């Protein structure tokens, strides 16, 4: 059983996954080492191998954790009273991450892009958080009465991911903020 300070075995695993998620985003999958993950988590390096037999197992755990975080975020957004308000709240998540995106890119997009170069299953698994967002956005557009809901969801996500790419490339957080404002007007025009 894990105590609330995270000293138990489950706490170590969670700290390793959180540290790995941060390092994978900041350094990339290839550059981040298991020793760096252990150090960042405050865990002896040998413990990494207790919880994760390979680096790929740790990457899978990061993907699963991010997917879980996306589902939690989307669940919280359901409290908004209208689909348009929920969609706007979704895209504002990128504005909240704007400084991080300017430095390292979108945590979802960069991981999916990096793992896409592989053909071992991790490439498809990295799309899980993105797929969850697309499916949820599609449902919101469907609630707005749109028959082209999937296309609109793709357009919305492409808009924020394109802005995230440009924000990162130019190290300019205002790009994503400006694009989100544009997308908000677009959402208003659809409802």
From TrEMBL:
Q: What is this protein called?
A: TetR family transcriptional regulator
Q: Which Pfam families match?
A: TetR_C_13, TetR_N
> Which PROSITE patterns does UniProt cross-reference here?
HTH_TETR_2 (PS50977)
Q: Which PANTHER family match?
A: HTH-TYPE TRANSCRIPTIONAL REGULATOR LMRA, TRANSCRIPTIONAL REGULATORY PROTEIN
The domain of life is Bacteria
In which organism is this protein found? Dactylosporangium matsuzakiense
The UniProt keywords, alphabetically, are: DNA-binding, Transcription, Transcription regulation
Tell whether Signal is among the UniProt keywords.
Answer: no
- DNA-binding positions are 33-52
* Gene Ontology MF term list: DNA binding
Q: What sequence ranges are listed for the domain HTH tetR-type?
A: 10-70
